[in-house]
Each structure stands twice: as C-alpha cells, then as structure tokens.
Amino acid sequence: MTKFLFSLATALLSISISAQQQKISFESSEGYSLGTVVGQKEWSIKTDNVPNSNFKVVTGNATDGNNSVEVTSNGNPTENLTYLFKKIPEYDRLSISADVKLEKLDNSDYYMLSLYYNNNGNYSWSGGFNFDYEGGLYADSDEAIKYIEDWEAGKWYNLRIEIDHVTEKNVKYYLDNQLVFTSVLSNRIVRTNELNFEFDNYNSGYIVDNIIIKDMDQLAVNDINKTKISIFPNPSSDFINIKFDEEIRSIKIYDIKGSLIKSDNTPKIDISAFPKGNYMVSIETKSRVETRKFIKN
Fold it and tell me: d(Cα 182, Cα 184) in Å, to the nearest integer?
C-alpha cells in the first residue's frame, strides 16, 4: 500500500507536467515505431528527391531513452533545403529544445531547430541554428545573424530557443544551456507554429532526439500557484488549516500506507484522533489537484 502514495503523487505530477510541456524522444512508449518517421505523430517532410526511408526512427543512438530520428543523405544535393517538420502549439511564450548531432563537415549545410510562422503556406522565419558546411555555428533568422562558435562533427549539441511573441517580442538562443544570443522577433511573426530540421542533402545527415516543447506562461502560472498552498501548523497535534487561493472542492487525507482515512471540504481539519506520523493531503479544486505532506505529532 505504501506504493499507492508514490503512484498517486507521480500521476498527479505527470498530469501537471503534460499540461505545461510536450516531450518527444521517439520511444515506443510515446507511440513511435522503428522505420520511417514520416506519417508518425504528424511528422512530415518537404523535399525534392530524398525518400521517406531516409528519415527514420532508429535505436541505439540517443540522448534520452533508446530511440532517435536519423536523417541520411542519398548523395543527390537538393536545389531547395529538405525539411523534416511538425506543427507545434501556438504559445504566447514558447520554449523549444532538441539534441542534435551532425554527421560531417565540408558536406551539407544544416539548419537545426528552425522555427517558422506558417500562415497558410506563407512562411516567416522566427529563428534557428545554422551549422554551415565550413564549420561555423550561427544563431540565425530573417532579422539577425550571429556567429557563436565552430561546430564539431559527431558531437551532441543541446539547442534551445525561447520566443516571446507578446511582451518582449524577442528570440533567445541557448547552446548547451548557455544563453548565446538575443535578437528581435520579426513583426511578421504572429505565433510560431512549425518546427523544422533542414539540410541540403550534400552527402551527410544528422540525428535528432529529446525534443521538449514548453508553454512558458503555463509553467510560470503553475510555479506561482504552487506557492499559494499552505498547511499550518505543520507539524500539528490537533488541527491543520489549509490556505488556498482557489475554491476547494474536496480534501482527502491518506496515511503512509496509502489508506484513505478522512474526507472533508473545509479548510480547518481536526486531526486530533490521528496516530502520530506522516500523512498526505490531496486538495482538489476546479482546475487541478495538489498533494502535500504534513506531520501529526
């Protein structure tokens, strides 16, 4: 029964996190299967002559879990860039990251984590990371470009871009969790809604894994809300008070074995008859469920 509390807390945490972010690591647990990624989970390609089979979920070369997506060249350079792309949510403040590994220098140009506003087929480039074939790594968009450093073939890089469409109206570029550039956001970008990984198919490819898409506004709201719950006094021998800014629908208290021992809906709860020990209280409101611990002494 002790596993119940852990499972309950884990499930509630999972629900909260999933509302704030989406993680894509191409695992079978996410619904992906080995083979071409085209057509799986709304992944698509735009290409002149690179077949679907060159964009595939593979196992054994990943930064998270077992799987990743490997894109290989067929040696026929494309006149236009080849895109592996997916629609993404139109958040006011977006954070998106991915791990990428590029195969070779002096071959293809790569545009990794490229973000666009797709307005019925009319594209505006929010920003992305440009790994040019000569070895230069740039933060790049229609509005600005900045050299960051030289890149190495066969090395994993963590790329992250944060876009504020509303207040700051800027684009922040992070390389391996370090802020490397901030640029203005084009006034043509209403909301970023497409994620692309691009190359020109010139005899080399790349690997992508561990994509994380976050709604930064929702994360900020949830962080604030977490501080609004208080249980006092804690520890307590007779009563606990629960202070919450939202209307409470129900309160359930579980002992350390995971057994439900009390249900209530008032913010002041008599615990005088409880044995001494640790307890979990589950607080349900209209919008969510929060779980906290208290001690009876």
Answer: 7
Rg (CA), the chain: 24
Where do the domains of the chain lie? Answer: 17-222, 227-296
pLDDT in tens, 192-243: 999 999 999 999 999 999 999 999 887 555 544 454 678 899 999 999 998 8
Cα–Cα dist 261/182, whole Å: 53
Q: Which residues of the chain have pLDDT under 70?
A: 1-20, 219-228, 286-288
**Alpha-carbon dihedral of residues 50, 34, 85, 121, nearest 10 degrees?**
80
DSSP-assigned letters across all residues of 148-202 = EEE--TT-EEEEEEEEESSSS-EEEEEETTEEEEEEEPPTT-S---EEEEEE--S
Spatial separation of the C-alpha atoms in residues 235 and 279, rounded to whole Å: 10
Tokens at 47, concatenated? 């290409």
The HSE-up count of residue 91 (CA atoms within 13 Å, CB side) is 21
Evaluate whether the domain defined by 227-296 bears CATH number 3.90.550.10: no
